[in-house]
Amino acid sequence: MGRENIRRPQKALSARFVESVTEAGKYFDGQGLFLRVAPNGAKQWVQRIVIRGKRCELGLGSPPAVELADARKLAVKNRGKAMLGGDPLAEKRAAQNKPLTFSECVDAYAEAKLSEFRSDKHRKQWRSAIERLAVPTLGNMPVQDIRTKDVLRMLEPHWRERTITAKKLRGQVEAILTWATVSGHREGDNPAAWRGNLKELLPAPGKVAKAQNHPSLALCDVSAWWNDIAQRDGMAARALEFVTLTAARSGEVRGMTWDEISIEPRDTTDTTDETRPKRVGLWTIPASRMKGGRAHRVPLTPEAVALLESLPTMNDSPYVFFAARGGMLSDMSLSAVMRRMQEAQVKAGAPGYLDPASKRPAVPHGLRSTFRQWAAERGYPRDMAEIALAHFIGSEVERAYQRSDMLDRRRDMMAAWGAFLRSETSPTDKVIRIA
């Protein structure tokens, strides 16, 4: 092996240099601290230090996780310890062999895996649930000492009162403990596993609490609700209209950008009435923004196109429905519009827009259920309605053979849905009288 390329700059290293250097070698700073750059570009902070008369090299981490300023502080601290007879190298080895606590495993797991989550919102939700419900019980325990009784003690207070949340929490803890086992921090069976373990100690989630559906809008209230939302100003109200017209999820609409939209060019030779635009469009949602991780095409009716063309735009904001400062609208902004609509109805002495089954006020996500009920009652094929909602259809084998997304047929269906919202009779609506 050839000797490493040693670089001794006339002045101390800079943060910019540390970030940009790519040539393999050693780059010295001071206090015995130097940056080692490997031929493959990997970087590591190393300190040459004399500990109890013996010359040693002590690893201090790697940039950018350990910045230049932090590496300098560590080097000074280690040098001080060595001068007073301490052994910073032995301390580091002892710390590396110390069993990890559950909280430390949570941090390590999050650093390794949370980048796989679809959005910051989901990452924050994951972390929040763990810190609120699991860390108070398991946080300070060495991960190798956690047993089934400990996981049970953590889950039991929540299992009956918030079953769905507790079920998700159990899966999260199982994933963290699996990571700890694979990483060598614990051995044995996973104490948070369900089958053959907690399943024998806790009632099945389905027997404890039934999942509640999002309150939807009754079909008989759709027209009145649609007229009501049209009278309301604001970007959130327009986004809610678009959610309704497309039967899309709130997050898909709020995150929509202009480069996902394509609209048919206007036909300048058309001399028909121009008071209502007749152009159609296509919205292609990338897989990275879809719940199922698969790209989804949404046909845009003339009414949806007209809504988009009526919207203002903001420089430097890619979003179609943007917030006041150009960012993405919050989920609560759409919910707030529906809540204000309901409050206005109640104030006027009317019952408002209530779910026909639960009698709870309708929410934005419930509009998808309203669309699905309408499609079923109008006799549209089940698969076509489910594709419109971006649901998976059939088994993996069936999906491998059924690759059509029925775009043209769904365009006609969404046009009929728009006519229903406006209380109009659509040419595609067929009423069959059965004697």
TrEMBL record:
Residues 212-414 form the Tyr recombinase domain. Belongs to the 'phage' integrase family. One of its GO terms (biological process) is DNA integration. Pfam families: Arm-DNA-bind_3 (PF13356), Phage_int_M (PF22022), Phage_integrase (PF00589). This is Site-specific integrase. Residues 100-181 form the Core-binding (CB) domain. Keywords: DNA integration, DNA recombination, DNA-binding. One of its GO terms (molecular function) is DNA binding. PANTHER family: PROPHAGE INTEGRASE, PROPHAGE INTEGRASE INTS-RELATED.
